[in-house]
Amino acid sequence: MAPEQTNRLFSQEATARILVVDDEPRLVTALASLLRSSGYDVTEAQGGKHACKLIDTLRFDLALLDLRMPEVDGFAVMAHLANQQPECGSIVISGESSFTAVSRALRRGALDYVRKPFDPEELLSTIEGVVGKQSLLKAHEDIQVRLEKSEALHRYIVNSSPDIVFMLDADGRFCFVNSKIESLLGYKPAELCARHFRHILDDRDVAKGIYALNAPDISADNPRTLEIRLKTRGSRRATRHFEITAFPIDPQTWTHNSNTRGGGSGQNARYYGTARDVTERKEAEAFISFQAYHDLLTRLPNRALFKDRLELAITHARRGSQKLAVMFLDLDRFKIINDTLGHAMGDRLLQAVTHRLDGCLRKGDTLSRFGGDEFTLLLPSIHSHEDASQIASKLIKTLKAPFLLGEHEVFVGVSIGIAIYPEAGDSMDQLIQNADIAMYHVKAKGKDSYRFFSESMSIDSTNRLNLERDLRLALEKGELRVFYQPQVCAQTNRILGLEALVRWQHPERGLLYPRDFLDLAEETKLISQLSEQVLDQACRDVGQWIRSGHQDLRLAVNLSPVEVEHPRFVETLMERVNATQFPPGNLEIEITENVIMNDLEQISQKLRELADLGVRIAIDDFGTGYSSLNYLHRLPIHTLKVDQSFVQAIRSGADDTCIVNAIVAMAHGLKLEIVAEGVETGKQLEYLRNLGCQQVQGFFYGPAQPASDISKLLTQATVRTAVSS
What we know:
This protein has 725 residues and is of the alpha/beta class.
């Protein structure tokens, strides 16, 4: 372009007349101020109605408008603008971000779409680009009008066009193509002349391109327009998207045969056309579509796409009398890792989990991220429950290996609920809901496994919903009670400690025991709130007894895995202990072996911190888990609690007592205290005394009792037995 033309274009940009339309006066004023500071001539319109009146009386180069406006919205303003001033472009600035609104605005002629709140620099850059393009188009039109009869200028326009301009002969071979094809596709014009146009068509679009050119209804008044993929030159054969418009040429009126700056002379041309590169637009449309139906973190289908595919799979299964499976997957321990290492590491873990899960699937299966750490899996066309079982087992197995996140090695498991069509439901919502219910039953039974949905689960779920509602109210109304079971010296019958046990005084069902509601409390994440209330009450009760003269009285409390695995477990526990002025040296926390082995490194550190503060550590239900000498030797363990199932097995025969014998002998060797749970008879007590078991607890000395009864017991030198030998 000549220097004087360039200067004229810059001048046009600087004095471009812009109409700013919005129903928010402050936004209109701010926008106008921003544009005027950049040299634009700005007119302000308060709403769509005002804008339409200005369009009728003033001329504009560009309009910036909102979509959502009362009375007359942005789409109506665009329509009025297209009718009155078709040469004026428009840019939408709106908080409306749905794909439908964006697509509709672009179809109505919007040159760009900027989402509120906008970045001023980005907006100015967008306006500058659009105004520049408008100025180029106007300059282009002016040149055409003034120099229409100049053949030299026609050549210049064709070869300077932003589009590929081409001519084809009757057989579809190139007889002219401008030089733009080299910058867009890499072909030199000369090498394409005399070659068939299918040479540059993507293989998937060859039939489409040939059919379009040979359509019988193509004419000068009805040109053929289509979007098609063209190959770039080179070994990679990448493709780009083009919008092609082709017109037939009447051979009676086309006699041109001179050389051009492009390739070929145009002689024997029967078709004239342009090819506009729309790759960026197609990629933007594809990305918007991908965003609407995929999770951007894992690149998996999202909930909406999963439901679409499930609906389609159900239709096929119904027609073919086939089965299909829906799995609901929930990661175990993800929240703890996310809270401990941060959300960035949590995102990396989700991506790594997705990669492993994806490797277990068959062709045609759909894995989706349902939300958070929940996934759903569609298995179409299965033959039996065994097919789903095999896939579920593979999924569980693939997640057992540790994940390396930076310098951290972490472990996650997965709980899987499975619903089979049609027995577990014949609709999309039923299958998803029932798979979810089955997954929660896995969580309640220990996690890291799978279960199929059954009708009994649905009944249980209804009851659990009612119980969950009541439990939430119980926590608010203070319906929980703390009972205490004495831990008694096996030799002297003197009370050494008290284990705090929770009870629920239900207003309708009476006194409920932990087995009736603790699993539900863990499942619904109410366990922490419940434990806090129990710990606070126990510290107040036992603290009062300690201060009244029982200085050595020990308080034993059970802690759930959710509490122990929390990153702030130690801080939270000590804050509550200190708040009640309870002496840490009189506190003994009871945890299970499984909690320790789930994350030995992290739990070990927490237990050492507590031991340093004087808190005692007891292993509850010892003998039912890992029973590892390794962790017993490494950790600050003070007490082993022998599970009551082993105590109850004490009979006259040696086979029934070998486990208890081994546990007691091991505890003595490691210099640990022993508490035997579930002692119910004098024979059991006598046997444990002879083994050297220091402490016992159980119904032999009575059930757990409220604080008022324990106060009376503590006044006695020894505790009496509640049952005969």
